[in-house]
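Consider this today:
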Amino acid sequence: MDSWIWWLLAAVGLGIPLVLTAMPEFAMFAVGALAAAGLAGLGADVVWQVLAFVAVSTGLLVVVRPIAYRQLQKGPQVKMGIEALQGATAVVAETVDGEGGRIKLNGEIWSARALHPGSVYEPGQQVDVVEIQGATALVV
């Protein structure tokens, strides 16, 4: 049997634990085995095949693995609570001015105050929530 077939079988064999354990390192070794299979298919010597396997696998482990883990550590940026309300659009329920008023924000009625004291917003008008102070939304 040709050596490139052995390398392909090694790549498949490394793919099995990848699927079972979800460890991306196995994928990097499988890619190294595919590189070695490619060299074997081109007629390279066994020494070059092994060197390609080691070089590609090590390169992926050194370069790709830290980047992938950094991305996994960040996680999705999900805004919750007050942070999720800042920047949202609301509809004025009762006239809002520098003294106060009411808006409908995400289906709930909130106390609101105009960010700029001279501004007045009439019912039905859309406003943007700039900040939440306690239970009062500052709007523009």
User: Anything to note?
Assistant: Strands lie at 89-94, 102-105, 108-114, 126-133, 136-139. The first strand starts at residue 89 and ends at 94. The chain has four helices and five strands.
